[in-house]
Amino acid sequence: MPLDTSTYSLALLRLDGRRWNELRRMHAQISTQAAADGSSYLEMGNTKVICTVSGPSEGRRAAGGGGSGSGDSNATVQVELGIAGFSGVDRKRRGRGDKRTSEMQMTIANAFASSLFTHLYSRSTISITLHVLSQDGSLLAACLNAATLALVDAGIPMSDYIVACTSGSTSSYSSNDEAADPLLDLNGMEEQELPFLTVATLGAGEKVSVLVMESRVQVERLEGMLAVGVDGCKQVREILDQAVRRHGKKMLDSVVA
Question: Do residues 50 and 131 make contact, with C-beta atoms less than 8 angstroms apart?
Fold first, then answer.
């Protein structure tokens, strides 16, 4: 069923009731898995991800995962992504050799290899394991945000948060509409019909650490989409920072009590 994009110009509301620059509801938790060195649970709309972090541990490269490092002098960041068969409407089970999964693993590993202080843990491995429970758009962004929280929980030093979100355009490439407006935080139905990109920034600034776009769009629209995405990352950072501060306050209260 094609997405009816005519509602955008009429009511200025999207199909889920949001305006063009509104994020979906986000829920974040830290230390959800007691056995892991660091863990988190993140919801972005109906996209739900669990992340666990182990290490730094003795250097050992796991088979089938995406990894990134800068030689023996630095730690290697190893990422393993598991997508549940029941997470999407197609109920498709992805194997270990799935190309899409491998690309996402490598993107996440490269992003955190540049932001973590890997030089402090020579000849070691930092393992990030992600489990996708539900998919409804912004999957890569949700994985990056969940991994950031889990790494903070594990106490692995980093230069700043890596925060991510998606942005898109209100009309498809084939319509060639130069007056199309940008959209923030696309859901699954919007991603199927509209061009979109995933952008991740480092901290509260505008330094882009990840930029992935797999759909076609006129170059005139790209600047607006990127600007909206970077602004959305600033909003996401505030939400993640609040989750970290809440968890820190809870730990302090338990120690004092």
Answer: yes
| pTM for the predicted model, two decimal places | 0.86
Q: Which residue is listed with tokens 């990840």?
A: 210
Tokens 């949001």 belong to residue: 18
DSSP for residue 171 = S
The dihedrals phi and psi of 10, each to the nearest 5 degrees, come to -85, -55
* CA dist., res. 102 & res. 32, Å (int): 26
Residue 194 host element (H or E): none
Nearest CA to 171 out of 221, 223, 108, 205 is that of: 221
CA distance 90 to 99: 17
Cα–Cα distances in angstroms (integers) from residue 219 to residues 114, 173, 177, 180, 251, in the given order: 28, 10, 12, 12, 48
Which H or E element spans position 250? helix 219-256
Give the number of other CB atoms < 10 A from CB of residue 81.
26
List average pLDDT for each run of 10 residues in the chain, which is 257 residues long.
48 78 91 90 94 83 56 82 80 70 92 91 91 91 95 92 92 63 88 90 89 87 90 93 91 81
